Amino acid sequence: MKKILSVSVLFLLFFSACKETTSLKIERDGEPDVLNVASENVAMNRAIEEANITLSNFKTAIQSNNKNYYGFTLKQKFKDADDN
């Protein structure tokens, strides 16, 4: 349960960081919105660092087959052809 709480906190940090300096929001029908965040966004960079540190906890929770763990989500940073 502690792991689920940690992952939830990370997602809250992520979403609060996105609001700080979001430069572009792409809305897609039937899909989650895509938010582009400035690379110098301090809150986002802290959330990314914490997520990387705790990624092994996330993996362990997914692989545990614990029926109380569900609704996992993982976000990935992507760069386009222009290195954005």
TrEMBL record:
PROSITE patterns named in the record: PROKAR_LIPOPROTEIN (PS51257)
Keyword Signal: yes
Domain of life, source organism: Bacteria
Keyword Signal: yes
Signal sequence range: 1-19
Keywords assigned: Signal
Stated name of the protein: Uncharacterized protein
Gene source species: Cellulophaga fucicola
